[in-house]
Design brief:
174 residues; six-stranded mixed β-sheet; 3 helices; 33% strand
Length: 174
């Protein structure tokens, strides 16, 4: 008969924290190396994600494509996007820098919380349809439907980038 080996405190804490992080906020589900929106490895629940700032978009119903550039100057161009409620956008994101960058859509509060979590866990890997983790000189894509009016944000949550001002605004009009 095998006797279980006790886990070190850190390993045990990490095992206990995974379900909490997964269930506590939708924004804790991004940063994998797979292209965002690549549904081959994701589950149906994630594919149909609904959030305070919209829901996973149907690529067949895209009404407009917006090109967004990001770089090592810690800026997005453009840094403001206006959308009509119900519109589905394809965001094509180009990383023109030499560093890893990402674009994550969310509320200001969610993005700030996620940025803090990333500072504590810089090697965290996760994925969600409202995020694009883009390697240097590569491109990423998000297809998102904006279902609620209001002002939302997007940001790079790689540690230090959010704090350096790598943020933008999405205004969803009625």
């Amino acid at each position: 008969m095998l006797t279980p080996t006790p886990l070190p405190g850190i390993a045990l804490a990490a095992l206990l924290l995974v379900p909490v992080l997964t269930l506590s906020s939708a924004t804790v589900l991004a940063h994998g190396e797979r292209a965002h929106g690549d549904k081959r490895a994701s589950g149906a629940a994630l594919d149909m994600m609904d959030t305070a700032f919209g829901r996973t978009g149907d690529p067949k119903r895209v009404t407009r494509t917006v090109e967004i550039r990001m770089g090592d100057d810690m800026r997005f161009v453009p840094d403001r996007i206006e959308v009509r409620r119900g519109e589905t956008l394809r965001l094509r994101i180009a990383n023109r820098g030499r560093l890893m960058h990402e674009l994550v859509i969310g509320t200001d509060q969610e993005l700030a919380q996620h940025a803090a979590l990333m500072r504590k866990n810089p090697d965290m890997e996760h994925d969600a349809p409202f995020m694009a983790h883009v390697a240097p000189a590569k491109r990423g894509e998000i297809v998102w439907q904006f279902t609620r009016p209001g002002q939302f944000s997007f940001a790079c949550l790689v540690p230090g980038h959010f704090e350096a001002g790598m943020r933008g605004t999405i205004v969803v009009k009625e």
